[in-house]
Amino acid sequence: MDEFSGSVREDETERPRREIHLPSGNRDEEEGASWSTTEGQSQTTDERETERQSVAGGACCPVGHLSFPFSQPPGGPGPAQLSPSLAAMSLQSSTPEALRVVNLLQERNLLPPTPIPAPTPCLPQDLQKINCHPEVFRSTLTSIPQTQSLLNKAKMPLGLLLHPFKDLSQLPVVTSSTIVRCRSCRTYINPFVSFLDQRRWKCNLCYRVNDVPEEFMYNPVSRSYGEPHKRPEVQNATIEFIAPSEYMLRPPQPAVYLFVLDVSHNAVETGYLNVFCESLLENINALRGDSRTKVGFITFDSTIHFYNLQEGLSQPQMLIVSDIEDIFLPTPDSLLVNLNECKELVQDLLKSLPSLFEKTMETQSALGSALQAAFKLLSPTGGRMSVFQTQLPNLGVGALQSREDPNQRASAKDIQHLSPATDFYKKLALDCSGQQVAVDLFLLSAQYCDLASLGCISRYSAGSVYYYPSYHHQHNPAQVERFQKDLKRYLTRKIGFEAVMRIRCTKGLSIHTFHGNFFVRSTDLLSLPNVNPDAGFAVQMSIEENLDDMQVVSFQAALLYTSSKGERRIRVHTLCLPVVNSLSDVFSGADVQAITGLLACMAVDRSVTASLSDARDAMTNAAIDSLTSYRQSVLTIQQPGLLAPACLRLFPLFILALLKQKAFRTGTSTRLDERVFAMCQLKYQPLAYAMLMIHPALYRVDDLTDEGALNINERTIPQPRVLQLSVEKLGREGAFLMDAGTVMYLWIGRNCHPNFLTQVLGVPSYAAVPDNLYMLPELDTAESQRTRAFVGWLRDQKPFFPSLHVIRDESQLKANFMQNMIEDRTASALSYYEFLLHLQQQISK
Q: What is its subcellular localisation (predicted)?
């Protein structure tokens, strides 16, 4: 099956070979951001849900005990071969700390003071040293059960979480006419294959023995011959290949950017157009691309407006198409133009656009027709469509009606209208995907826009959704700042075009459900017309054949894409994990954050295919079932209390956090679009960002010191401890910062020390703290520098820009801050202690 879409083919035949070289510095020239090692920092941004395969994701469980179908029916045992280099490995050295028994009802202060690291798989040191970084590739279970029945007994989901195109500070890049792959299963050679001798290597996924090509005998790094096991491909679990030209079916596509802008009265009122035009003018030279890069613009209200930007015109020419039922391109050849050749016209257009529509009285929005026009324009080349929308589309194809009943926001046990009202946007997204077009949606609105329907345009075309509720250039300066910062990142970050991704795993394992934004082209091939460095993916897995004779299994994700410079590249990540045959070893390898992230994806699917209450029950039962299994099958001495292994001690807390998260909460007034957006984010955000949205981090910041501080680029970054999310941790005399991923709150206690107020906020007293303060003033005091350094450091770890709100007891936003106090009781939700009692009652039934 072809992995390369469109412009590349994957050929079974060997090719003439030439020398491989690593670019100087062993680093990709396109890479920028650093590869950080702290847990709370993994990569990626905003948004969206994913195509799910029809095979297994949505089947409901028998009525009664609602849980997630973690796996498919197991197949029979299958043959397996043991790789000789691993035969001596023993896994009985499981870390006792992971299995230390914790009575959750007694040990209340479980939250570690620093971010939680990913567990380290129990592998021999030489293998673990070169294993894939957990921020790029991690498994819910770092010890893989030998059989499906053992996995079923553990009652935990088996799956992988990926961040495949993450910005990396170091990325080995190999140029070669021979990319060495298994002749049987097409796995790329990697650090976990075994060399039988200098001339033969055994695949770690299907165990076929392959010949080592002659060219592979030469090592370009050491410039020596005869040591294939020392080549970069076999020394690095993450590596990028530049695909040789003979793989190409057609030239790689150029970078093409089309901007589709709502210019209705509503849009002009928000003032977003000025910010967009200023931002693009400012960053136009930083758009990723080469001499072939093309750009175009479409604006729309009740009609569609095109812009002729052909070289030679003295000014941009606006062409209006009012027949929105039968959309056509007025001058097909001059609407997408070469950016370098027509830059002045593009700049002229951006300078004049905001004033063109400032007096408009057009209230209608023909979004569907504008998208059809944009699709026609991009179809010949493929590319990226960036759509800016400020209201419910109400004219022509794809028109929608309001489905939100504000009176039902809080009271309803089950939330209606989580699925699309029409299949127009999904169908168009699939057409886009087929033509290598991805659609990114920026929704800037104070009113209901039916994101459940509109979001499909991005979800199935591998785009992203950005949402700015109540956006207004005057009334909401924090959202304006966030939009500006997000837009800058969006316009300048790296991008891959016409991409596909395939995930392979060792024989016996199988993948059955995918989560993220893409279209599943064949059973295991994801179509990604664009891939961006801020997108995360997840997959669920099952064990189809017993892994009896295997010490380890491997997973390999291969992402094939065209860079913005027109190079066809293949980024490969390989993860190796041990196989275990005892339930206690399975438990000791549980990764509680990865499990929570995967369950969140599964719960979003369940909310849409079944109901929100089903999803909530299934999440609660995930905690009950795994702790019951641990109690009955792992604990040797029965004792009273709610018992968990240390590695799962935070599982009930994270499940409760999910139940109180905007996506799944009930009994609290939650706008439908905000709920749907929260669901999109859980399915699309890389794990580190999703975890902050599920369980925010709380810090006390009025007493920051340099003790234990980090030193980064000659800046001292204080490291306050993470606090439990409970009101009892807030002191009236303190100031507390909450990092909830996309937003931060700085809560000022009523009796906050005057020193903090004057030195950090620049105000004389608590009463003088302004109502809508969203920036920390730059004061020349040690306290101000420490606080700003810490907030800046938290922001720098994210690819999106979290806005900051300074709040007092009287602030409107205090309710949002308090809703994140997950351990406390609310009118409609249990406290953490009550939730533990509920779990204990269910487990001891």
A: Cytoplasm, Cytosol; Cytoplasmic vesicle, COPII-coated vesicle membrane; Endoplasmic reticulum membrane
Half-sphere CA count of 333, side-chain side, radius 13 A: 1
Integer-rounded Cα radius of gyration of the chain: 27
For 259-290, how does the pLDDT look when each residue is reduced to its tens digit (9 = 90+)?
999 999 999 999 999 999 999 999 999 999 99
CB atoms within 10 A of CB 785: 18
Question: CB count, 10 Å around CB of 778?
Answer: 9
Per-residue pLDDT tens digits for 748-794: 999 999 999 999 999 999 999 998 899 999 999 999 999 999 999 99
Per-residue three-class SS string for 757-796: HHHHHCCCCHHHCCCCCCCCCCCCCHHHHHHHHHHHHHHH
Helix (H, G, I), strand (E, B) or coil at 67: coil
Q: Is 640 in contact with 578 (CB distance < 8 Å)?
A: no
Question: How many of the other CB atoms lie within 10 Å of CB of 311?
Answer: 11
Of 812, 839, 834, residue with least CA distance to 824:
834
pLDDT tens column, 182-195: 999 999 999 999 99
Is residue 653 within 8 A of residue 10, CB to CB? The reply is no
Q: What is the DSSP string of 262-313?
A: E-SHHHHHHTHHHHHHHHHHHHGGGSS--TT-EEEEEEESSSEEEEE--TT-
Least confident of 76-90, 219-233, 704-718: 76-90
Cα 816 to chain center, whole Å? Answer: 23
Instruction: Please tell me the distance from the alpha carbon of residue 266 to that of residue 264, in angstroms, as a whole number.
Output: 5
- Predicted TM-score (pTM) of the model is 0.90
Distance CA 69, CA 488 (A): 41
Neighbours of 354 (CB within 10 A): 18
Q: Could you tell me the pLDDT band of residue 803, with boundaries at 50, 70 and 90?
A: very high
For residues 48 and 678, the answer to whether their CB atoms sit within 8 Å is no
What number of CA atoms fall less than 13 Å from residue 169's CA on the CB side?
5
Whether 8 shows a pLDDT value over 50: the answer reads no
- Give kind and range of the element (H or E) at residue 490: helix 477-492
Q: Where are the beta strands (DSSP E) in 624-695?
A: 643-645
Residue 209, SS3 per DSSP: strand
208 CB burial (10 A radius; 0-12, 13-18, 19+): middle
**Conformational region of residue 312, where left means phi above 0, alpha means psi within -120 to 50, and beta covers everything else:** left
HSE-up of residue 244 (Cα within 13 Å, Cβ side): 16
- Rounded average pLDDT over 661-666: 95
